[in-house]
Amino acid sequence: MSVSSLRAAALLLALAGSLLSPLSAPAQPANAKPPLDTRSGPTPKAAVAEEAAARARRVPGDHIAVVVNSEVVTAGEVAARTERARGELERRGERADLDALRKEAQDALVDERVLVTHAREAGAKIEEGELDRVVAGVAAQNRLTLPQLLDRLRQEGTDVKRFRENMRDQMLIERVRDAEVIRRIRVSDGEIDKLLEERRTEAAAKAPLNLAQILIPVPEGASTEQRESRRREAEGALKRVLGGEDFAAVARELSQDGNRSGGGEIGLRAADRLPDLFVSAVAGLNSGQIRPSLVESGVGFHVLKVLERHSGPDGSKVTETRARHILLRPSDKLPPQAAAQQLAEMKRAVEAGRAKFEELAAKFSADGSAAQGGDLGWAPPGQFVPEFEAAMGELAPLAISEPFQSQFGLHIVQVMERREVAVDPRQQREQLRGVLRERKFGDAYKEWVADLRAKAFIEMRDAPL
Questions:
Q1: Do 110 and 46 fall into the same domain?
Q2: Model-level pTM greater than 0.70?
Q3: Residues 212 and 356 in one domain
Q4: Which helix (H) or strand (E) holds 208?
Q5: Which of 92, 113, 374, 422 could bond to 68 as cystine, CB 3.0-4.6 Å?
Q6: pLDDT for 316
Q7: Can you state the angle between helices 425-455 and 189-206, rounded to 10 degrees?
Q8: How do residues 160-210 score in pLDDT, each as one tens digit?
Q9: For the chain, first and last CA: distance in Å?
Q10: 362 lies in which domain range?
């Protein structure tokens, strides 16, 4: 589920998870989107294999809607993709604007043809053995042998040779796209420095801090004379503790807050759970030190002491997590609610000892980790998509998450173990460079497609939508 590896593997996942639903009814998963649709981001999340099957069919009476370089887009393809998008909207209870959907479908198909022809002209090659492995992977993920898969395609009336060529085209696009878009992305040392500082600041904000305070409140609506009286009282308390008196004893005597009986101790908590005013006021103070001046707030005057300060991570070490997951990809036969219910039952079965997580993953998970029982290996922070990171980060070792959704489907995840590992500074900067590349990939991809489309020969045979 890493961002970079998932983009590279997205084609196989799409092929493997939703080719057969069944092929006799060419429906798309509920969360499918057209491959290489620039309006939905750079990663094709649609059922690419089903797209290939649809293009491999020839519908009697179909006609050419658009000529794109040496390729064509047929009216039947536009209609099929429009219908799929309409069905998706209706399943979500949204109203469909058919004219807008047709235009989006046609634009997406034109973009796809532009990319196919460019990939071929760029000289990218997909060897037969590589294509064979992808087709075999499709069969395995659908619990079929290769002969069974080919039989299903023939039953649908799909030309197997054309089907393979369409899949080859999609693989070519993936290969050329990643190479050319990455070359467009520039990440400066200054950007890396900025991100590194942001992460250090974020880590510091979460570092545990224990403060004690003496609060001398100022009543609401107090006069200037009353406020000055309270200030003098607070300054007297500050002078006493700076002079060596026990802070806790003075707090129990003078402080007027809820922590008075505990000597003013607020308790160890993450810095971002303390008032910003307090955190800023004690910045630079070490454990045992007292701020040498008063802190004034809307409620009164505070004398602050740092009882305990834990330093945040300095980047020299990172916590790696080894996790495993089960992924279900919703489809017409498996709506999202049903997928979530199945995952919840799997979670209960594992927790009750009726099943083993790795066996369920091997049997049901719809991604390449199934063969390893869902094991994703050791991963540093930021390796996975945000939804996955968030769910995993909340788990203690051996705990299992509730079902959650990412752009790839519905998951449950189990943290197997965690470990601290040293990070080489150069390696850390390269990791951050990769994070910044990922952030810029979407915009760079859209610019790339726009440039290629501007150079392409495009002839509308149907009236423009």
A1: yes
A2: no
A3: no
A4: strand 208-217
A5: 113
A6: 61
A7: 120
A8: 888 888 888 888 888 898 889 989 999 999 999 999 888 877 777 677 889
A9: 38
A10: 317-422
